[in-house]
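Response to reviewer comment R2.3. The reviewers asked that we include at least one raw input/output pair. We reproduce the pair for DUF350 domain-containing protein here without editing.
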Amino acid sequence: MLQEMLAGLIAAVAYGVVGVAMMALGYVLVDLATPGKLRDLIWVQRNPNAALLLVSGLIGVGIILTTAIVGSADDLIAGLIDTLVFGLLGLILMSLSFLLIDAVTPGKLGDELSSPNVHPATWVSATTHVVIAVIIAASIW
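Raw output as returned:
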């Protein structure tokens, strides 16, 4: 019983480290997409567009990572690899969707994200993040 608990604790720490790394990378990617510093946009200027895009990315990463973990719960090494690979795939596809939306719509999406008024384009981009995450999660099963 104690050995199972210790194994679970080790797995939780390992998955947690991978999860934090994926979320940090997601933060960096959103920061690159927005003019100015994401930290200032959200915490100082209280920008709803930047916050919505970041939140959708974090939720998306969480969906993907959770599914990868559950899908390989019996094998820690395989689970960590799946979590890392599928998490990176999600972040790449979310970033590509942002670039695609930016390319096919008028104006610069990054500029809209730094606007103090909520812009519908932010909802579109945020929704694509969650949809991409759900599609990747479904592919894991």
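Residues 11-140 form one domain. The mean pLDDT is 91. Further pairs are available on request from the corresponding author.
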